[in-house]
Amino acid sequence: MTVVNRVLATLLALALLLGGLLAVVEVVLAALGRRPWLVPHPDWTSWLTDQSLDSGAVRAALVGAVVLGLVLLVLALRRGRPGALPLPARVESVRTTASRRGIERTLRAAATRPDGVRDARVRARRRTVRVRAATALREPGDLQSRVTEAVSQRLEELGLAGTLRPRVTVSRGAGR
């Protein structure tokens, strides 16, 4: 689950919890014959009885609910970054995987090996590996190709050369 999905799910769950508690309080107050606490439900009831499906406010609320539902559905169905990537089997019927973070760490080590690289950031996705190397050199020259070669070589050692494509960028800066 991505961070955005987790935050949205938490906020939606909190809103539903608070709304449910508020509904319980309002129902208990109505059953006891007391005035509403926060929700003026007698006013809402009279307003809602005057509305029909032809009303602009009702249509706008329905369209808003449909759009919100579709947005939440798309966010829930969207695939995130994999937690683990499958490695090629060296023994038949044995399935091995490597954590995405472990692959990022080993590729970061490979990317910082060439001379001139101060630091590197690596993000592994399903099909690509994004490497951002930082250098303090004024003229990086062929540093990008050397970093690409080091990362590609490490991917070959892992057996992921055909699965993951490296995309390397080199920038001048202090790194992290």
Automatic annotation (TrEMBL):
Organism field: Geodermatophilus poikilotrophus
UniProt-listed InterPro entries: DUF6286 (IPR046253)
Taxon lineage: Bacteria, Bacillati, Actinomycetota, Actinomycetes, Geodermatophilales
Superkingdom of the source species: Bacteria
Domain DUF6286 positions: 67-170
Protein keywords: Membrane, Transmembrane, Transmembrane helix
Entry's transmembrane regions: 57-77
Annotated protein name in UniProt: DUF6286 domain-containing protein
